[in-house]
Specification:
Mean pLDDT: 93
CATH superfamily of the largest domain: Fumarase/aspartase (Central domain)
CATH topology of the largest domain: Fumarase C, Chain A, domain 2
Order of helices and strands: HHHHHHHEEHEHEHHEHHEHHHHHHH
Helix content: 55-70%
Strand order of the largest sheet: 1-2
Number of helices: 20
Number of domains: 3
Strand content: under 5%
Low-confidence stretches: 463-468
Shape: elongated
CATH architecture of the largest domain: Up-down Bundle
Radius of gyration: 30 Å
Structural class: mainly alpha
Distance between the termini: 36 Å
Largest sheet: 2 strands, antiparallel
């Protein structure tokens, strides 16, 4: 059992207690961050005259070699060690001797792990943001190709008004835009360096925390050493943002599942992203969308777990905080995998445009426009609403859409109807007349897409620190 402490103890830790306490089985994925932080710490220690130039050079060379060996696979992280910190320090000491023992001067595992986790979360935020951006590019392409693809818009899962596929997908573009904004906010808020805070009360060594923070790409050092080692707000914020991303993906998944059904037939999912049934040969199942929908609960669970873990922890560091890692790692992995699978499914999906248009026509989605037609001819809106409601009943009785009714049949409902009603209630006209900002009219959508293109040219995470 290799550990960084023990002088105060007179007997060995119970083996089961050691295993229960150990974290190397999962925190080993932090080895890059641990080495990066240790290199910066060693350089700062030499700058401040706390270790010699020769000792610094030996430490940096040794840490670099450990990283290279781990990357190449010639060195494996042993679970004989308590955590990733003890593994790296032990291997360093084996390589460079007593200089390796000086690396931990002026720091604690408390600020060390806080740094490692911040560096890890920061890099993962960048990767998730890049995946969201790639997904937005796919959505923009589909939107640009479907400015005039008419489909029914829904409220309460009932056909409501005609929109376009571009307009419908634009709603998800907006959701992912907000998701990226949240990630940027988290990045900016968390981008302060805890290294040098010590166990909770700083250190008597003349550390230059600002120098270390600058080397590691932070805005500056954290300003309260107790909060530095006990802050996990950024983990909770990230889990909350990841939960929101999954909620958006789950809503999208639900629609894809519905659209893929025989009853709708709006889309056809590529064979590469579908599965069949072991007993029913006709089946083509939307498993990717269903799995994304299901995995949303998994990410929600990690958020609730972390909130519950942190709810009653007194200052400063407590071992409970070790529980921040496994759930966060799994949530990050889950979101990245779901984004990748879903965007690839969308990129290869076929949209049945004629089916969408027929569905809009047979769902009386132009009823509001018919009412507006009557209002334009002097009928009070409330009366027009009643007239069109009566007209819809007649259409249902005759199994016709509004535009399939003859002018004579329309005049039986109201003498105000004239031949120009057919242009007023055509799906094309209904969509094109909706030209306010944010509406589905093609010209309005072109203006919005142009704004989206400008947005996509910017790299918002650069505002929050160094993008790696």
């Amino acid at each position: 059992m290799a550990q960084l402490w023990g002088g105060r103890f007179t007997k060995e830790t119970d083996k089961n207690v050691y295993l229960f306490n150990a974290s190397v089985g999962f925190d080993k994925r932090l080895y890059r961050q641990d080495i990066e932080g240790s290199i910066a710490h060693a350089i700062m220690l030499e700058k401040q005259g706390i270790i010699s130039l020769q000792e610094k050079d030996a430490i940096v060379k040794g840490l670099t070699e450990i990283r290279e060996k781990l990357e190449s696979g010639s060195l494996e992280i042993s679970e004989d060690y308590e955590d990733i910190h003890s593994f790296v320090e032990a291997k360093l000491t084996e390589m460079v001797g007593d200089a390796g023992k000086k690396l931990h001067t002026g720091r604690s595992r408390n600020d060390q792990v806080a740094l490692d986790m911040k560096l890890y979360v920061r890099s993962e935020i960048i990767e998730i943001d890049e995946e969201l951006k790639a997904f937005q590019e796919i959505l923009l392409r589909i939107m640009e190709e479907n400015l005039e693809t008419v489909m029914p818009g829904f409220t309460h899962l009932q056909k409501a008004q005609p929109v376009t596929l571009a307009h419908h997908l634009g709603a998800y573009f907006e959701m992912f835009l907000r998701d990226r904004s949240r990630l940027t906010d988290i990045y900016k808020r968390m981008n302060f360096c805890p290294l040098g805070a010590g166990a909770l009360a700083g250190t008597t060594y003349p550390l230059d925390r600002g120098y270390t923070a600058s080397m590691l790409g932070f805005e500056g050092p954290t300003l309260n050493s107790m909060d530095s080692v006990s802050d996990r707000d950024y983990v909770i914020e990230l889990l909350s943002a990841l939960s929101t991303i999954m909620m958006h993906l789950s809503r999208f998944s639900e629609e894809v599942i519905i659209w893929n059904s025989n009853e709708y037939g709006f889309v056809e999912i590529d064979d590469a992203f579908s599965t069949g049934s072991s007993i029913m040969p006709q089946k083509k199942n939307p498993d990717i969308a269903e799995l994304v929908r299901g995995k949303t609960g998994r990410v929600y669970g990690h958020l609730m777990g972390m909130l519950t873990t942190m709810k009653a922890i007194p200052l400063a560091y407590n071992k409970d905080m070790q529980e921040d890692k496994e759930g966060t790692f799994d949530a990050i992995d889950t979101v990245k995998e779901c984004l990748l699978m879903f965007m690839q499914m969308m990129d290869s999906m076929k949209f049945n445009k004629d089916v969408m248009k027929r569905s809009a026509a047979r769902g009386f989605t132009n009823a509001t426009d018919a009412a507006d037609y009557l209002v334009g001819r002097g009928v009070p809106f409330r009366d027009a609403h009643g007239i069109i409601g009566e007209l819809v009943l007649k259409c249902i009785e005759k199994n016709k859409s509004i535009e399939e009714m003859s002018i004579g049949e329309l005049k039986e409902i109201s003498e105000v109807f004239e031949e120009d009603i057919y242009d007023a209630v055509s799906l094309k006209s209904c969509v094109e007349r909706r030209m306010t900002t944010g509406a589905p009219g093609p010209e309005a959508m072109k203006a919005v897409i142009a704004d989206y293109r400008k947005y996509m040219e910017k790299d918002y995470l650069e505002k929050g620190g160094k993008k790696k």
